[in-house]
Amino acid sequence: MSDLPKRVTIREEGPREGFQIEAATIPTADKVRLIEALAETGLTEVQCVSFVDPRRVPGMADADEVARLARRRPDVRYSCIWLNQRGLERAMQSSLDVLGELQCAASETFGIRNSGRDAAASLAEQRRWLETYRANGIAVESVVVMTAFGCNIEGEISPSKVVERLAPVLSLATEFDVKVPEVTLADTVGWATPRAVSRLVGAVRERWPDIPVGLHLHDTRGTGLANAFAGLQLGITAFDASCAGLGGCPFAGHKGAAGNICTEDLVFLCEEMGIETGIDLDRLIECARLAEQIVGHPLPGKVMNGGSLAGYRRAA
């Protein structure tokens, strides 16, 4: 336990990851209500929307309106994602924080399904993004590797395959004199295990020892928090998570599976091990219950039902 980090950053992705996959249409006002509630918990980043084609992701059809309506706190970053140049341009026209991101998919088949581009076309798109970032003073914050642990179409992804896919993107960043501050390894469709986390993080660190690694984990097969704990043991300090366990990938091909690792469960785990998050767990639990109320069906979070231990400790 002595090697665990003293503090971690947890980035909230529930409003984007969750509402993009819900079968029912979520009212815009409810999306805004959850975003604003999450911003009051001590989270420093809330990912609000995806600027994507609404024909493919109907749950994001109101992305521009959500971005316009959400009231903002000065100490919170309100982020978004995009999959192509048009989405990036929409993001830049919005009031949200445009955090420069580069992307690649370890599974080329998934990349084609997700964005319509193979590896070569994806790299060309990343060049366009870098040109746009440079022209508009947007800092690159991460390179995200999708399907870094496995793919429901191609199967298990080896660490060497991830390194192979990641290398050209990092080389392209170097060409633009960009020092990438984080590589985010995404378990997009829920193949990761603690052993796989250890192997892949080790392989990426061996190749690029100066670039910090972050984790984007899903709980598709019930290993999400175990994988997060494995990451903590490796000294990972940046995690993506989703309020109440909202979310999942709309192109994963497993309808009804659990979504991202649950933010309040991860916060509880960290705080109980003495790892600071800066997040008010009780307020976060209220947000999780609000999220469940909004979607109208049970969500997989555990701490939202069990509660924190603070009250029990006060009563003891």
TrEMBL record:
Tell me the SUPFAM superfamilies matching this sequence.
Aldolase (SSF51569)
User: What residue stretches are annotated with the Pyruvate carboxyltransferase domain?
Assistant: 8-285
Official protein name in the record: Hydroxymethylglutaryl-CoA lyase
Q: Which residues form a coiled coil?
A: none
The cross-references to NCBIfam families, in alphabetical order and at most eight, read: PRK05692.1
Q: Which GO-annotated molecular functions does the record name?
A: hydroxymethylglutaryl-CoA lyase activity; metal ion binding
Q: Report any Pfam family annotated for this entry.
A: HMGL-like
- Similarity comment: family membership: Belongs to the HMG-CoA lyase family.
What is the originating organism of this protein?
Neoroseomonas eburnea
Keywords in alphabetical order = Lyase, Metal-binding
Q: Which PANTHER family match?
A: HYDROXYMETHYLGLUTARYL-COA LYASE
Could you tell me the superkingdom of the organism this chain comes from?
Bacteria
Concerning CDD domains, the annotation shows: DRE_TIM_HMGL
> What is one process in the GO biological process aspect for this record?
ketone body biosynthetic process
* InterPro entries documented for this protein: Aldolase_TIM, HMGL, PYR_CT
